Amino acid sequence: MKRYIQSLLLLIVLSSCSNELNFENKKFNKKSTLLCKQNCTEIKVTIPIAKSNGRVADSINKKIFSIVKELVYLDEKPLTKEDYEALVSSFIQTFETTKEAFPDSTFGWEANIEGTIKYQSENLINIEIDHYTFTGGAHGYEGLQSLLFDPKTGKTIPIDKLFQNLVELKKMVEKKFRVKYQIPQKGSINQTGYLFEDETFQLPKNIIFTNDGLLFHYNQYEAAAYVEGPKTLFIPYASLKNYLILK
User: Measured in whole angstroms, how far is the alpha carbon of residue 111 from the centre of its chain?
Assistant: First the structure.
């Protein structure tokens, strides 16, 4: 009986270890084979891959892949193989097909995607995806996406599960935003040239966890014109104790 209990405990420990969520950074790079003198077409993807045998890792990996795919997959046909090698190859193939159709075009394409684990605890995993793509035009598209995962399920955490008292939180963040960017406390949030929809302040789509507090990040166009660049606001955890549920 004693040996049976010991064997059972060992099996539980081994099972727990096999399902432990770890990440491995992987790189997927590819260049166009077409001749070029400068600004040659290239795609670079560096991304953390969740490693375990469970559905938690699968859920996280599928979500991250869907974000990267949305950024770099430009073909009209569905992607037949859902993996990063196929994804980077499709970017290059789409460029080369476009180049054949428009041989006089002189610019190359570029994609640079980098995923980083910014914060990890027993309650959440925060993965930031920084991205830059250029496929022609006046300038490229640059920004970041912050993904918040529940480490127990692998699902993304919605904002109402992250914070409580959302109305009061938004008021507090808006007040600090106005102070930082020298917007009068009274009057429209857009009175100095910002572009909030319906002239109403909104929390950003991307919130980044750090060891000391939260970084509220607005990409270009989300709060201001492209030339103004991204807008950020850091708030320490001490100021968020009445609002933050998970940390």
Answer: 15
Domain with residue 103: its CATH number is: 3.30.565.40
Per DSSP (E only), the strands in 33-184 are 42-51, 110-120, 125-134, 141-149
Q: Do residues 125 and 116 touch, judged by C-beta distance below 8 A?
A: no
Instruction: Tokens 């106005």: give the residue.
Output: 178
Domains contained in the chain, number: 2
pLDDT tens digits for range 191-232: 999 999 999 999 999 999 999 999 999 999 999 999 999 999
Range of 186's domain? 159-239
The residues, ordered by sequence, that sit 6+ positions from 81 with a Cβ below 8 Å of its Cβ are none
Nearest to 217 by CA among 229, 227, 225, 208: 208
Q: How many CB atoms lie within 10 A of CB 8?
A: 10
The predicted structure's pLDDT at residue 11: 39
How far is C-alpha 28 from the geometric centre of its chain's CA atoms?
17
Of 130, 149, 168, the one marking the end of a domain is 149
